[in-house]
Amino acid sequence: MISRLEEGKDPSAARISPSRPFPVRLLQFFLLFLVIGIGASFLSMHTIRHFGIHNVALMQSTFRPCFQTPGTIESLIMPPVNLMHKMNDTELFWRASFETRIKDYPFRRVPKIAFMFLTKGPLPMAPLWERFFKGHEQLYSIYVHSLPSYTPDFPPSSVFHRRQIPSQVAEWGMMSMCDAERRLLANALLDISNEWFILLSESCIPLQNFSIIYRYISRSRYSFMGAVDEPGPYGRGRYEENMAPEINMSDWRKGSQWFEIKRELAIRIVEDGTYYPKLRDFCLPHKCYVDEHYFQTMLTITMPHLLANRSLTYVDWSRGGAHPATFGKDDIKEDFFRRILEDQTCIYNDQTSSLCFLFARKFAPSALEPLLDIAPKVLGI
């Protein structure tokens, strides 16, 4: 039975409820977003067609908010704060090979000497070097390549504190030794103020004070690397014909591992991909020791006019054997240094000179205390 209340209802009222009006405003918002989306799509297609997808990506990557401060020259020339970076050798050498063509620097550049220590672990002569560097903080940089397993414990007050670079194992007579030297050079090249690069070992000591060494190196027209054409079995006898045509017998040179070179030569060593594989594959231990031939031969081929063809590091081979003499505490006397410093003649800037050696090796840890005692009088340190 139908009640009287239901008798008077409009049948359409069952289909449309007056409490739920149709969402007209929602439909308007939907249509607005649809139009904006279609417009943005057409604009993107037009931009890519006109500029190319590479250039569009470039514009997006170079976009910077208007409130961001642009880079300054200081941010480009400041040396790395932390030497322990994450780059591998390929990335490091590529980065280190960057070089400015304009030498008229738009800032005050104070040229520095990069002292590069190739070590196994500790630096027993560190107290002597600390004394040597004191007061010359703006004129040098320090880089240490040690075995990866070694953890240094220099205090924050030390000039060697946090100066270790990412390292790998370097074996005597192997190409890994030259890899370590290139790694040192590459890390030092990241500091644009480093102009000269000296390779040292943990057993090296300075023979002069810092001022004399800086003046001697900075005024030299040449880099100091020995490169001798030695005819015997330990010179030309180590040459392999498979090194040709990049390296011929007439190019083959031998010299000391310990060098001092200018920035231009350091970049040449780091960027080399021509001579490296030849020495790596054909200068093998027990017949050929690559650290005595690689840089010496390569630079003789590419930049011979920049080499002084001698080393600044004194080494005593008079006792015979595969390694030079090691000096202990009993050797540290004034006569010992007089023989090194006074009984020498060499060529410096095409003139005869009596100042030939600025560094010496190999000194045992036992030599440290007598060295510290005698250094003010004999070495001026």
Automatic annotation (TrEMBL):
<dbReference type="Pfam" id="PF02485">
    <property type="entry name" value="Branch"/>
</dbReference>
<keyword id="KW-0808">Transferase</keyword>
<feature type="transmembrane region" description="Helical">
    <location>
        <begin position="26"/>
        <end position="45"/>
    </location>
</feature>
<protein>
    <recommendedName>
        <fullName>Core-2/I-branching beta-1,6-N-acetylglucosaminyltransferase family protein</fullName>
    </recommendedName>
</protein>
<keyword id="KW-0812">Transmembrane</keyword>
<dbReference type="InterPro" id="IPR003406">
    <property type="entry name" value="Glyco_trans_14"/>
</dbReference>
<dbReference type="InterPro" id="IPR044174">
    <property type="entry name" value="BC10-like"/>
</dbReference>
<keyword id="KW-0325">Glycoprotein</keyword>
<keyword id="KW-0472">Membrane</keyword>
<keyword id="KW-1133">Transmembrane helix</keyword>
<keyword id="KW-0328">Glycosyltransferase</keyword>
